[in-house]
Amino acid sequence: MTTPGITDCSVCQPPLLEALIRSEPELAMQWQALPRRDFAAGSLLQRAGEASRHCWQLRSGVIRCFYLNEQGTERNRSFHGAGHWVAGSVPPLPLPSPYAMQALGPVVVVELSYSTLQAWQRRFAHIGRVLEEALGHVFQQQAQREAELLSLPPEARYQVFLETHGDLVRQIPQHHVASYLGISPVSLSRIRARLGLVEGRSRR
């Protein structure tokens, strides 16, 4: 079982999205006017429980989405890199986000407010449909990942993670990977040892 990658989304990569936007001059001007924001490592883009009023397209860096229970324990839900869209709810519904979003390192994003997206959907109907595809792709990936966690043993889940996250693997600390897989860091270290991915000899 494999999770669909970003290449399965026809407009998730920045060059493809921007080519689509350039095809509509008025929209291209509005896109260029969208705020580009920089987030330092550890910064929160969205807190759990806050109403979702923006979505972001990553230009660089890695973001993690994570749950936080009443005891303060974090559980990683997903990781996203350049080209991915992230949001706390399915845009453009301003619902409370069930998870927080945090920059794992320096991150650059394009920020699109839900109100702006609604205006675009009304004025540029074909663009709205394609943007919905890109944003919906994120939630498709997350649903697929949850199914994998239920159906695969830990080592198989880790192998799927390595296959589907590509270059992001090197940018995600191992304790965050363990949280994502639902296992302890010690269990992950044992799996890595069995697979020949020994710390200090492989950075993967």
Count of alpha/pi helices = 7
Question: Averaging pLDDT over every residue, what do you get?
Answer: 83
Q: What's the helix-strand series?
A: HHEEEEEEEEHHHHH
Percentage of residues in strands: 15-25%
Structural class designation: alpha+beta
Main beta sheet strand tally, sense and closure = 4 strands, antiparallel
Roughly how many Å is the radius of gyration? 18 Å
Which word captures the global form? elongated
- Terminal-residue CA separation: 21 Å
The low-confidence runs, each spanning 5 or more residues with pLDDT under 50, are 1-7
The order of strands across the largest sheet is: 1-8-3-6
What is the helix fraction of residues, given as a range? 40-55%
Say how many strands there are: 8
Explain the overall architecture.
- The protein is an alpha+beta fold and 204 residues long.
- It is built from 7 helices and 8 strands, in the order ααββββββββααααα.
- The chain has helices at 14-22, 25-33, 114-123, 125-151, 154-165, 174-181, 185-194, and strands at residues 36-39, 44-46, 54-60, 63-68, 74-80, 85-87, 100-103, 107-113.
- The strands form 2 sheets. It has a 4-stranded antiparallel beta sheet with strand order 1-8-3-6. A 4-stranded antiparallel beta sheet has the order 2-7-4-5.
- A hairpin with a 5-residue loop joins strand 4 and strand 5 (74-80).
- Helix 3 crosses helix 4.
- The longest helix is centred in the C-terminal third of the chain and has 27 residues, at 125-151.
- The protein is elongated.
Structure characteristics:
204 residues; alpha+beta; four-stranded antiparallel β-sheet; 7 helices; 8 strands
